[in-house]
Amino acid sequence: MPGDANPQVSAAGEAPAARSGPRHVAIIMDGNGRWAQARGRPRLFGHHAGARRVREVVECCPGLGVEYLTIFAFSTENWKRTQTEVAGLMSLFRRYISKEMNALAEKNVRVRFIGDRVRLDAKLIGLMDKLERKTEGNTGTQLTIALNYGGRDEVARATKRLARDVAEGRLDPDKVDEETLPRYLDTHVLPDPDLVIRTSGEARISNFLLWQSAYAEYEFIDTLWPDFTGEELERLCNSYGRRDRRFGAVKT
Ligand code: FPP
């Protein structure tokens, strides 16, 4: 069955009411490996430094009016890294969740995970479930962590569920329009991102929120993720506020 409707008005409809800053910021946290290598340290050292940055960025959101923060922690392509790096990252995610669980709950942060859980180990899945349950009543920053996430994979999984609903008579194919698929995506309860940031100087989106970012503004910045600060996020949010988003329309 499809999920709840996406709370953001679609690109085909009215543009959201004017507000200066982004409501939903999504971040591709890139550059941990280069940050570590520049210090002569193993790549995992950079990932640990990157994990520490997450807390600062989450804490800045309420002051910047950012209600939704979505971060790309591990992609469906990241399994191609060495076994040592993958195992180190999985262990980092377990540690991060255990260590941050109480602080996130107390700071009124609601955490959700998106991505396919099938390849993740049972202990990590258990911690993810626990963190989601523990924070589900929280009304502050809505933090979404993309873990084993790929935009194409998400669309494929959503399409499979949609096709099943058609085959089993729950969905009329003639009624499928551009509002239908988002209800099957992992992000079905989230508004689309307004601003997508990628750190580390690469100007590509690497399979992140492909459907959802159709009308997002992008910022590709040189800073490596472990050097990213709340001040930089503030600067990007302010610069977003000066952009003219028309959602395909012409200003009259
Ligand atoms: C990309 O840098 C980063 C990742 C693949 C992992 C992102 C993970 C974190 C920031 C750490 C923890 C996150 C959470 C939620 C606890 P890269 O390794 O591709 O860097 P490079 O391009 O310099 O090699």
UniProtKB/TrEMBL annotation:
- Its biological purpose: Catalyzes the condensation of isopentenyl diphosphate (IPP) with allylic pyrophosphates generating different type of terpenoids.
| Manner of cofactor binding, per the entry note | Binds 2 magnesium ions per subunit.
Chain intervals for the UniProt region annotation (Disordered): 1-21
Under which name does UniProt file this protein?
Isoprenyl transferase
Q: Report which superkingdom the organism of origin falls in.
A: Bacteria
Listed GO molecular functions?
A: ditrans,polycis-undecaprenyl-diphosphate synthase [(2E,6E)-farnesyl-diphosphate specific] activity
- Residues binding Mg(2+), per UniProt: 30, 217
Q: Which CDD domains match?
A: Cis_IPPS
Please name the NCBIfam families in this protein's record.
PRK14830.1, uppS
* Sorted UniProt keywords: Magnesium, Metal-binding, Transferase
> What PANTHER family is this protein classified in?
DEHYDRODOLICHYL DIPHOSPHATE SYNTHASE 2, DEHYDRODOLICHYL DIPHOSPHATE SYNTHASE FAMILY MEMBER
Cofactor(s) in the UniProt record = Mg(2+)
Q: What is its EC number?
A: 2.5.1.-
Tell me the subunit arrangement: Homodimer.
UniProt: substrate binding residues: 31-35, 43, 47, 75-77, 79, 81, 198, 204-206
Pfam families attached here? Prenyltransf
Give the positions the UniProt entry annotates as the active site: 30, 78
Q: Which PROSITE patterns match?
A: UPP_SYNTHASE (PS01066)
Q: Which InterPro entries match?
A: UPP_synth-like, UPP_synth-like_CS, UPP_synth-like_sf
The entry sums up its family as follows: Belongs to the UPP synthase family.
